[in-house]
Amino acid sequence: MTTPHVTSEVGPLRTVLLHRPGGELKRLTPRNNDQLLFDAIPWVDRAEQEHDAFAAVLREQGVEVLLLDELLSEALRDPRARTAALHSGVDERRLGAEVADTLCSYLSSMDEKTLTGVLVSGMTFEELPAAEGQSLVRRMHQPHDFAIDPLPNLLFTRDSSVWIDDRVAVTSLAMPARIRESALTDLVYAYHPRFAQSARAYGAHSAPVEGGDVLLLAPGVVAVGVGERTTPAGAESLARSLFADDLAHTVLAVPITQTRASMHLDTVCTMVDHDAVLMYPAIRDHLTAYVLRPAGEGIKVSGPEPFLRASAEAMELDRLRVVDTGLDPVTAEREQWEDGNNTLAVSPGTLVAYERNVETNARLEDAGIEVLRISGSELGSGRGGPRCMSSPIVRDPLY
Ligand SMILES: NC(=[NH2+])NCCC[C@H](N)C(=O)O
Asked: Where can this protein be found (predicted)?
């Protein structure tokens, strides 16, 4: 077991956090999928198989795969974690005092594994334990309304925590459907014995920052997408805290279009080698970056400058190679939507990608990159690829 440490996007991956999807995906219906940020209703068994295959590819590469629900169950052995879990899961504003009380004592009686299942998959009103007396809340809610919301996007472990150097930042997620994911991830890092020694980055800030927007371009150089999820205030407070902890010397705040297709920076740009990115051609020449550097107690902001130039300069490279997918605009748009750009490097020049993005993968191979293909027909229905579905905990340093 190695100590958590991540200073790049591509250093040999040793330990990664995934979440094997399950019951929470079974909660998705055509009525709630938009709100729960899924574009289709996944075939759950197949999604699980696809996810197992993803984990198997990583293990074959020598990567230790940690599963969030297992860590959470183990963390819940600590009574403080249990209390915090109940606090985050039971919302008295929604349930009223009486149902909230009943639910709390019901959850308190559960073993760790069952409790984890409920925290992740949620609970409907009809699944609540029976109670004496009359409750208006129970009578007026529909049986399938959620008393505890399910967390189908927990699958995308990238977004709720980011290791930067030897510290973990538990992020502040922007969308209501995902806010509670941070609370669960926080329990793991606060109470699981494996992480007892870990220090935090970013602290208890509340301005939204999502891990899909954070790219560790090189040791000390962090790019942060600012768009639908991470806000300017989020990028600024992350930069401030990284500078204060001496975790970065440059932060690039990168404006991205506020659309579903480009919800995070990693939907349009990921690193594939220590000096190379895979980028969506439509934005390649337009992407810009504000350059943030520490200045005394404050921050100096310059730019915006072209993203590629600003990145190369901060990374001390002559230039950043771009894998030019060279696709016609329609194919590029289709493959970008299907997470063609959302690759996970397992070492410099070797990555995991969805097999369906045939053209992008072929171009990567032309550029000398090894592509380990996985199937993602069901996993992709939540709009996330291999990078979104993984949170690296240990990567070997690059140099
Ligand atoms: N890092 C990422 N690109 N994550 C993708 C998250 C997808 C998820 N359904 C959401 O909308 O939040």
From this structure: Cytoplasm
